[in-house]
Design goal:
The complex is a heterodimer of chains A (281) and B (317). Chain A is of the alpha/beta class. Chain A is built from 10 helices and 7 strands. The radius of gyration of chain B is 19 Å and the shape is globular. In chain B, strands 3-2-4-5-7-6-12 form a 7-stranded mixed sheet, sandwiched between helices. In chain B, strands 9-11-10-13-14 form a 5-stranded mixed sheet, sandwiched between helices. Chain B has a two-stranded antiparallel ribbon with strand order 1-8. Chain B is an alpha/beta fold and 317 residues long. In chain B, 62% of the residues are buried.
Amino acid sequence: MSDIQTLEKTTLQVRRDILRMVHKVNSGHPGGSLGCTEFFVALYFELMDFSLPFSMDGKNEDVFFLSNGHISPVFYSVLSRRGFFPVDELNTFRLINSRLQGHPTTHEGLPGVRIASGSLGQGLSVALGAALTKKLNRDPKTVYVLMGDGELQEGQNWEALMFAAAKKVDNLIATIDLNGKQIDGSTDEVLPMGSIKAKFEAFGWEVLTLKEGNSIPHIVDTLQEAKSKLGQGKPLAVLLETEMGNGVDFMMHTHAWHGKAPNDEQLAEALAQNEETLGDY
Amino acid sequence: MSTYTNQGNKDTRSGFGVGLAELGRTNPNVVALCADLIGSLKMQTFIDENPDRFFQVGIAEANMMGIAAGLTIGGKIPFTGTFANFSTGRVYDQIRQSIAYSDKNVKICASHAGVTLGEDGATHQILEDIGLMKMLPGMTVINPCDFNQTKAATLAIAEHQGPVYLRFGRPSVPNFTPEDLGFEIGKGILLQPGRDVTLVATGHLVWEALEAAKELATEGISAEVINIHTIKPLDDEIILNSVQKTGCLVSAEEHNYLGGMGESIARLLATKNPCPMEFVATQDTFGESGTPAQLMEKYGLNKNAIVQKVHAVRKRI
């Protein structure tokens, strides 16, 4: 395992990237990006097995799909820091003629992205398809997908959940970013979903819950436990309890920063809380 | 006069089923999905011969489109099967984002298109699907005319890299194109040369156009008949060459005039060679229950309708 401290240093730089990207274009989604920073760093710097340069087919590699595409800043930062494309390209986020579109797309050929996402609720189905192809290809690697909790209000997810259990798709780990917040407020205010764990289990899934969803060592342990449970005929979900806006005190404990960029002063304050560790782009 | 003869009535969906079965034997990357309509889509032979390469997703078309997109990652060529209505309007955003915008090599195979679905009525008779699908960037849209052409198209789209919408139907209709004709995506077929009017037809209306041409010949009107099986990309050349000779055109399709093949042709003519044109198509209406023949008559989608439109367009020259 990589040094936990190294991974934690990486998260500080990824937070800086996220904040600077959304600040520059005064748009984008910092809240969920910051909340999932530890997950992405753990996934791409520790857990997933893949090779570069990127290949769309990802044969004999672990592959990842981002369903809640609006947290593109954390996805782009981690992909670039992990070597999928030059870090300098983060400068082009949401600008015209950029490969770093507001929401991720394959259309501009950005390495690391295998599906467009942004219109919510579609990622789990796509991940299931990729998992089925791995089975057909006798490819033993794992398919990962990240979904938001608010996104579970989309009905397509429940079609996919039903299918995954019925067809025993057991080479896939679906992580839910359980931050309890969406654009209009808390998920409980907008549309209470009851127990997501109970619902997934009722649909035939094995569910692991991680309360420390912003802790790298806990994420690594839980996802490794999830991996050890693959291949047993049941689809696997990890409910990751995260804090939206994590690492920037004034962005935490509120849904206000779901889709809002910091102004100059706010950026300075947020950056002061996150040390530059790998060099700003 | 037409050299095409009806080799016996068959449904176009069976052409799809036979083509898919052949692909099952010849292309190991072809996989198929269905949303609880195996019998209607004639997929059973493929399933019997390739059980591992078939996925029954149940009545969950949105999930089916997403799974199909994912299956392409790693090299599979997924063919989805359900009714045209549930292949397009019901899942438009899934197709738009996960398939078209994501450049996925998915073949969306849609049966029971148009009013000829018959007695089930308007809930199932989509007349807007060509428009929906041709508007998606990168989507190829194909509407074959008979059993043989549907089979040939099914084989051809497996070789084509990129998303395809393949539209076919439920009823038994004349099977008249040669079995060995092959299929070139984007290439129209000149079925019959003529001097006085160009008839451009797609799908079930192609046979009706040939029948109309026969009747027009008895009136001394020489009709050129073109089969456009690929609505997008449109074969501009075959249409422009024809109207340069005839000076007028009638389009014929089992679809709303808004968004259909005729509209694509009208755009071509307006920009390249303006000339009088008439549309045989539904007039911004839903369908209803009835037999296919009754519905084609009521909604102006048959030989008689084509002949009337030819008379109308020739008056405008």
